[in-house]
Amino acid sequence: MLFLITLAIGIDVSAAGFGHPPPPPLEIPNPQDCSVLGPGWIKPEGDYAFHTPLCFLFVNKLRTCHKAGRYCAAKGARLVEIYTWEKNLWIWSKIHNSTEPRWLGLKFNGSKDFPLWMSGAAALPSPPYFNNWCDGQPDDDQPPEDCVVMQNMSGMWNDIPSGEKKMFICETLVFD
């Protein structure tokens, strides 16, 4: 029996400001075939295939940070979390021709020193933790810049106000 398990199971995502936790796991016939999740879901291939079986949905709808998080949760997923250079590069390869930056599942809860991923993991600035901030970021230039996007032109990250509407990326973990 195969299951779709979201990476945020057991984590209080409401504490990270992303709304309600995703729905319970869904049964799927093949963890290697993300298309069974619905139109648009893809799995990395080639050099950028990850060691964990992840499926991604690149959503071209414009939503605020929080509404994007709820959209992903309604699909049994979360906004994308990036822990490695390889994953960052693969995601950027998919959006670099886009006209818009994309929301990531990274948010600040009152402190620019400790951003949190939707799963509750801290995105700390030094190894072994990965980040890809634009120069001078995060800066909270137009307070509150409490959510984070990946720039479509560079693949680097920038903090911006959560009320702006951007495209976004959902991810979910599948395994048998």
Q: Enumerate how many helices there are, as a single number.
A: 2
Gyration radius over CA: 15 Å
Q: Let me know the largest β-sheet.
A: 10 strands, mixed
Count of β-strands: 10
Structural class: alpha+beta
Distance between the termini: 6 Å
Fraction in beta strands = 25-35%
Helix content: 10-25%
Overall pLDDT score: 78
Low-confidence stretches: 1-26
Return the string of H and E elements. EEEEHEHEEEEE
Query: Looking at the structure, what is the overall shape?
Result: globular
Please render the helix and strand layout as text.
Blueprint: E1 3-5, E2 26-27, E3 41-42, E4 54-63, H1 65-74, E5 78-79, H2 85-95, E6 102-107, E7 116-117, E8 147-150, E9 157-160, E10 166-175
Could you explain the architecture of this structure?
This protein has 2 helices and 10 strands. Strand 6 (102-107) and strand 7 (116-117) form a beta hairpin. Strands 1, 2, 3, 4, 5, 6, 7, 8, 9 and 10 form a 10-stranded mixed sheet that branches. The protein is globular and about 45 Å long. The chain has helices spanning 65-74, 85-95, and strands at 3-5, 26-27, 41-42, 54-63, 78-79, 102-107, 116-117, 147-150, 157-160, 166-175.
